[in-house]
Each structure stands twice: as structure tokens, then as C-alpha cells.
Design brief:
Helix content is 47%, strand content 5%. By secondary structure, the chain is mainly α. It has a domain of 42 residues. The chain has a two-stranded antiparallel sheet with strand order 1-2. A hairpin with a 5-residue loop joins strand 1 and strand 2. The radius of gyration is 22 Å and the shape is flat. The termini are far apart.
Length: 75
Amino acid sequence: MPRKTKRQQQVSKIPRKKEHYIEDEKNEDINNWTKKDLNEFEKIGKRLITKVLHWQENAAHSIRAVYNRTSKTTV
């Protein structure tokens, strides 16, 4: 069997927890959010959209519609 590369050895040393997911840790129900939390969430969402749209100046000019042979236009 060939010897493991340096990267493979590094990756094999990374500790992993089996069957452990982030969703299990944060089992938070949206219905239990307060009005303040919802307002903050909406503000952050709007700010993110604004930043993404301003990420590249004149982003609308660089977006092209693509025909993909299924009569559907993909943007």
C-alpha cells in the first residue's frame, strides 16, 4: 500500500465527532422568536442583499440570460 501524503496524514488527525451536526445543537423554533429578534433578522437580511448587489459595481450588466436547450431561460 502506498504511503499517505503529508496532507492525508494531516486530514486523518482532525478530530471528528460521529453523527454530530450543528442542527442538533441549535434546535431553535422560529415561532419562539421575539419581535426584536425578527426585526434584527430582517435588518441583517436586507443589509446582506444590499451588500451582495453592490458587491460588483454594475452587476446587472454582467448577468446574462442563458438558453439551456429546455426552453427555459436561466439567469
